[in-house]
Design a protein that fits this description.
420 residues; alpha/beta; disordered N terminus; D-Maltodextrin-Binding Protein, domain 2; five-stranded mixed β-sheet
Length: 420
Amino acid sequence: MIRVPRRACFSGWRLKVEAPTFSLQPPTSLLGLSAAALFLLAGCGAPATPSPTAAPPKPAATAPAPPATPVAKVAPSPVASPAAKPAASPEPAAKVDTKALEAFYKGKTMRIIVGFAPGGGYDTYSRTIARHLGKYIPGNPTVIVENMPGAGSLLSVNHTANVAAKDGTVIGNFSTGAVVQQVYGTPGVEFDAAKLNFLGVPARDHSICVATKVSGFKSIQEIIGPGAKQITVGADAPGSATVDDPSVMREALGANFKIVQGYSGTSRSRLAMEQGEVEGLCGLTWESLKTSSLDKVQSGEWVLISQNTEQALKELPNVPVAADFAKTPEARQLFHFGVVLVGQPQRQYVAPPGVPAERVQLLREALAQTLKDKELLADAEKAKLDLEPIGGEDDQKLISELLAMPADIKAKLKTILRPS
């Protein structure tokens, strides 16, 4: 038996119940259900606003469950925001006006602003790219390189985001470490990486640590553990891999690094090694070292004491893998997020916020084509530049993942890299 009110009256979606109640045998068929519904409605007065469409389809059983609830849960999706950012590419339809793009770029001079000093890996890649990029841009503009070192490339990315022309004639080239500074809320960050237009990366980088022969160090194992020897390494500034990598490794691996900051770019740190001011350099990439100082490694003047990776590179089968010295799950996560994930898409090329979408797409495609250019490939081989490009849209997704770093790992890395 089902207990039902003697009078059950509807006013919109509100159910008004008046006692006393009586019992009604539940209907056993659709016909019975209809009869029961008519019986219940018979005792109700006319609704305040007669509506032939409102009354019949609102049975009491469904009144408390408005259908809007599941829809409301789908609408606000915090994940959709970062995912939507890389999709500056639905606009490729807007890039059809080749004549307008050609008219804009013809006779122009484009600038690639490098966040490090001349002579280093960033500078070498950018100057190689600059020689060929103009071929793939309508109007064939001249492309030049300008160096703006400072604060681990933070100075240059602040300039690119806020000062540089937002018309597609300026490209910033900086370290992903600058994005990490935003993640940790470092003072001095004056940009939002989610608003930058990432154009791509020419190569996946792999961090290494190197020591001079005269220092006597041969393996990272010599500087790990209680009572281990200390190695003095040259570094740029917080946000650069030469500061951040040894800092994370000091915490995650127990490596005894003394970090001497203030050298603007790896070229200056390498000079400090040659002059005996420091014993080594950590956070330099293998790809960069091959372009600038491979002869010193081959001669034995410099010794690779670690490859800061999770697996050995094919070219370095006998160099210790730093991740092997991470003994706890937390240590492995710190090393993964603080060194490996940040380091691989390292050499960022971006257009400032506000550049028209069709020009952003053009620059992405032009960079991708440039990195396949036969003449560039020949230049890269001569300069020993590795090329393993990451496209602009994929690069933007990697940056979105970095910005969404797990909260517990971010908090721990912040205490390591940006102590208050």
